[in-house]
């Protein structure tokens, strides 16, 4: 049956090991790397609705917004410079994630996290003290470089550290801290916007220093992953580290597999060019399509522009910021659901359920906005029940994303790549995510102005496409050890054809496993 998601757990080896306090604490600290990304996502939408901020840096937008009060609501925020402020960060992150590939591979995952923290710190300072638009944009670019490094290294770090049975839950710690970062930013915007004297936006932007310090200090304290230590020749230290992480002495089987994966990866001189080989077709496809689809759910329309969106549909400035806080809380809570369920129910179930939920909500929100605003963008009166229905469905939509494409968009790519292409493929994942985040951020306000309520249907269409894709093409990866992942492709109805010509890098033989499970890493 085509939709079968590959093979089930228990179909291969089971490495001994526990969820030790050591691994738990390391993963919690590393997951903090998501805070810097989340803080950014949450902060810019709120800041761009603060009147003193607009008056100082984007006066024309502010004048237009004032003038538009009684005319077309869909177009009141349409400004390229303003969206450039939001989206410049994602272009910078894209470039940084490519550079981070080499740092992460050659110097270790931790060093990429450290770079990420430091760059982010510098960006936050420049933004907090900004006097001109160029300082804002330059600061956002530094923040973006920071995000690029962090997002490239943190998910890999988590997936490598975690015992395979808990990999999903520990990895989603990253997404959880993204959502906490967004929520904290929303709450701060709400309060800072009230500061008399109109300089609250400086606190909002400068506040990014706090998550930056957390990940900077955190990265100095964290241990490196055994996979990365072996990759860099520290083999014996890696064995000792693996024993400590897993809390058992019997790590031989996992250790042998890690060394074999590393040996195979050393034969690969050009990880980028390598990615184009036929046997990596499924990995490359996922590295491109998963982040692309994640962004085409339209989630960032809500995350970046929730206050703008809510004020567009007739909420006052204060109510708009408050509604953003509500969606932020839903986002965090629903992420906890996926931490609970991902290693029980599996990735595919969450992807598909989340897809259906988002689809229904997008259709309802489009219908609500269409009914009231029509195509002219001039609503008559907006009754209270109407606002409640819209916010409710937006919240259910956010929940659907937050237990499916949100966390899984980072988890699945980080667990499916074999070591020899892991760092490069993860960079592709991050860059594609950033390109599409950039595109959505940059064109959303224009699209809202032109497509009006149809914008929500546009994203709904993509949700249908991505759910079909998951149904047929994404194998289940729950409970499969990371260096064993090849099995899922080999037994997949479609991807197995790319595995037929599997060539084994070490003397044609990587059959190191006792039970003859087959190649572990190619
Ligand atoms: C996505 C972000 C999004 C966030 C929302 C992340 O997984 O990559 O683009 O804003 O989830 O929680």
Our Rg estimate from Cα atoms comes to 23 Å
Q: How would you sum up the major sheet?
A: none
Coarse shape:
globular
* Arithmetic mean pLDDT: 84
Helix and strand sequence: HHHHHHHHHHHHHHHHHHHHHHHH
What hetero molecules are bound to the protein chains?
beta-D-glucopyranose
The portion of residues forming beta strands comes to under 5%
Q: Tally the beta strands.
A: 0
Number of helices: 24
- Ranges where pLDDT stays below 50 over 5 or more residues in a row are 1-11, 503-522
Give the % helix: over 70%
What structural class is derived from the secondary structure elements?
mainly alpha
The CA-CA distance between the termini, in Å, is 26 Å
Summarize it.
The chain is mostly helical and 522 residues long. The chain has helices at 21-31, 33-47, 51-57, 59-67, 80-107, 109-128, 133-161, 167-192, 200-206, 209-221, 226-231, 235-246, 252-266, 271-274, 281-296, 299-312, 317-345, 347-373, 384-402, 405-416, 419-451, 454-473, 486-490, 496-499.
Main features:
522 residues; mainly alpha; 24 helices; 73% helix
Verbal overview:
It is a single chain. The chain contains 24 helices and no strands. The chain has 522 residues and is an all-alpha fold. Helix 8 packs antiparallel against helix 9, helix 17 (317-345) runs antiparallel to helix 18 and helix 17 (317-345) runs parallel beside helix 19. It starts with 20 loop residues before the first helix and ends in a 23-residue tail after the last helix. Residues 1-11 and 503-522 have low confidence and may be disordered. It binds beta-D-glucopyranose. Residues 41, 175, 178-179, 182, 294, 299-300, 303, 331, 406, 409-410, 433, 437 line the site of beta-D-glucopyranose. Keywords: Membrane, Sugar transport, Symport, Transmembrane, Transmembrane helix, Transport. InterPro entries: MFS_dom (IPR020846), MFS_STP/MST-like_plant (IPR044778), MFS_sugar_transport-like (IPR005828), MFS_trans_sf (IPR036259), STP/PLT_plant (IPR045262), Sugar/inositol_transpt (IPR003663), Sugar_transporter_CS (IPR005829). Its main location: membrane.
């Amino acid at each position: 049956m085509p939709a079968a998601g590959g093979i089930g757990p228990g179909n291969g080896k089971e490495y001994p090991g526990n969820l030790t306090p050591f691994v738990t604490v390391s993963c919690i600290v590393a997951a903090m790397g998501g805070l810097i990304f989340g803080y950014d996502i949450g902060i810019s939408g709120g800041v761009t609705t603060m009147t003193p901020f607009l008056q100082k840096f984007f006066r024309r937008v502010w004048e237009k917004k004032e003038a538009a009060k009684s005319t077309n609501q869909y177009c009141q925020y349409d400004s390229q410079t303003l969206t450039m402020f939001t989206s410049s960060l994602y272009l910078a992150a894209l470039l940084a994630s490519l550079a981070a590939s080499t740092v992460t591979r050659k110097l270790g995952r931790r060093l990429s996290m450290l770079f990420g923290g430091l760059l982010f710190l510098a960006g936050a300072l420049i933004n907090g003290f900004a006097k001109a638009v160029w300082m804002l944009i330059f600061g956002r670019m530094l923040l973006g470089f920071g995000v690029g490094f962090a997002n490239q290294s943190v998910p890999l770090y988590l997936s490598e550290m975690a015992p395979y049975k808990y990999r999903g839950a520990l990895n989603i710690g990253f997404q959880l801290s993204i959502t906490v970062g967004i929520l904290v930013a929303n709450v701060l915007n709400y309060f800072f916007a009230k500061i008399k004297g109109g300089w609250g936006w400086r606190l909002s932007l400068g506040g990014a220093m706090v998550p930056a310090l957390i990940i900077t200090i955190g990265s100095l304290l964290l241990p490196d992953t055994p996979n990365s230590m072996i990759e860099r020749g520290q083999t014996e230290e890696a064995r000792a580290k693996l024993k400590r992480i897993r809390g058992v002495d019997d790590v031989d089987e996992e250790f042998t597999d890690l060394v074999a994966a590393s040996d195979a990866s050393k034969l690969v001189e050009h990880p980028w060019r390598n990615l184009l080989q036929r046997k990596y077709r499924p990995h490359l496809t996922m590295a491109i399509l998963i982040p692309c689809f994640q962004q085409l759910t339209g989630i960032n329309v809500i995350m970046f522009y929730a206050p703008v969106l809510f004020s567009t549909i007739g909420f006052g400035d204060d109510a708009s910021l408050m509604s953003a806080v509500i969606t932020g809380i839903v986002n965090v809570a629903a992420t906890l659901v996926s931490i609970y369920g991902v290693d029980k129910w599996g990735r595919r179930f969450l992807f598909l359920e989340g897809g259906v939920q988002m689809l229904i909500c997008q259709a309802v929100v489009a219908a609500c906005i269409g009914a009231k605003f029509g195509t002219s963008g001039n609503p008559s009166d907006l009754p209270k029940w109407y606002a409640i229905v819209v916010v409710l469905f937006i919240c259910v939509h956010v929940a659907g994303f937050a237990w499916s494409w949100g966390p899984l968009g980072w988890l699945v790519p980080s667990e499916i790549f074999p070591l020899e292409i892991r760092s490069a493929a993860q960079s592709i994942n991050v860059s594609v995510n950033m390109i599409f985040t950039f595109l959505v951020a940059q064109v959303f306000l224009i699209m809202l102005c032109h497509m009006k309520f149809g914008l929500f249907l546009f994203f709904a269409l993509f949700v249908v496409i991505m759910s079909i894709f998951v149904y047929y093409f994404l194998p289940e990866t729950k409970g499969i050890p990371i260096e064993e992942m090849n099995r899922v492709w080999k037994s997949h109805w479609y991807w197995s054809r790319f595995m037929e010509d599997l060539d084994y890098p070490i003397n044609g033989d990587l059959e190191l496993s006792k039970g003859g499970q087959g190649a572990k890493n190619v």
